[in-house]
Specification:
The protein is mostly helical and about 70 residues long. The chain is built from four helices and no strands. Keywords: Membrane, Transmembrane, Transmembrane helix.
């Protein structure tokens, strides 16, 4: 089966660009994610980390949130 895929790919012009583009998209995504994590505010991270522990009242009533 691999020879069919390899044979098809050999006939496509500039096929070597697709893995490079995929790697760049992957790398850029994770660099952006890393930058977002480093620059995120601690208050936001604490609020999001407490969501699984919050009751339904706390989630749907914005007046009960601690600031």
């Amino acid at each position: 089966m691999l020879k069919y895929v390899k044979g098809s790919l050999e006939n496509i012009d500039d096929v070597e660009m697709y893995p490079i583009i995929s790697l760049l998209i992957f790398f850029i995504f994770f660099v952006c994610l890393f930058i977002w994590v480093i620059t995120a505010k601690k208050a936001h991270i604490e609020e999001v980390s407490n969501i699984p522990l919050a009751s339904d009242e706390d989630l749907f009533n914005p007046n009960n949130r601690e600031s």
